[in-house]
């Protein structure tokens, strides 16, 4: 079950299946993708906070569902579309990991823009022990986030990282008691600037094309905030 609500300047998306450690069935993947692909409205907050209910963030794919798959490639593609919807969301997505993130849960997290863990968070890619691997974009995004060496070690070994190890390897950017506070902190920024930063950092084109787009985006923001900039300078 996926729940969404708006709380101030933050839209909260909750994976709410705590009895199963928030493991995702095919229908849950559809609901989660739709939560991030919902049409933008004028009142949509600039930041989305992704979390899990209960004592885990997300245990990944529901193993009962995986065992019963008739078309495993289609299931992998469905998970990839969810991760892409998170990565491509117009809002800044902050993922708060409290408790266990395993397999697909890790892949959803690395699709987010900012990953924040509590001290009791743990991360693991246990698929290799089942003869599988993370196929919801994990082999694409993990090297970008952790670096190739750390990503290979993490995925090949199936080892579990605690919050401090996740911080050292770059899997998360902060370890805090209340990850939601980071979403609130980011939401205090100007919405158009937040969106522009996300678009520029996520841009996968060549360096020169990225730099031209970066300069154009800066000019647009400068024009939009010229009066505010001038007022602050005169203080």
TrEMBL record:
<dbReference type="InterPro" id="IPR001753">
    <property type="entry name" value="Enoyl-CoA_hydra/iso"/>
</dbReference>
<protein>
    <submittedName>
        <fullName>Enoyl-CoA hydratase/isomerase family protein</fullName>
    </submittedName>
</protein>
<dbReference type="InterPro" id="IPR029045">
    <property type="entry name" value="ClpP/crotonase-like_dom_sf"/>
</dbReference>
<dbReference type="Pfam" id="PF00378">
    <property type="entry name" value="ECH_1"/>
</dbReference>
<comment type="similarity">
    <text>Belongs to the enoyl-CoA hydratase/isomerase family.</text>
</comment>
